[in-house]
Amino acid sequence: MLKIEKLNKSYGANKALTDVDLNVSEGVVFGLLGPNGAGKTTLIRIINQIIDGDSGKVYIGGELLAPKHIGLIGYLPEERGLYKKMKVWDQMFYFARLKGLSPQEAKMKIKYWLEKLEMETWKDKKIEDLSKGMAQKVQFISTIIHNPPLLILDEPFSGFDPVNAEIIKNEILELKAKGTTVILSTHRMESVELLCDQVAMINRSKKILDGTIKKLKSTYRPEVYSVTLDHLRRDLPAEWISKEDEGSYNFTLPLSGKKPNDLLNELMQYGQVSKFQELIPSMEEIFIHQVKSTENG
Question: What's the pTM?
Answer without folding.
Answer: 0.83
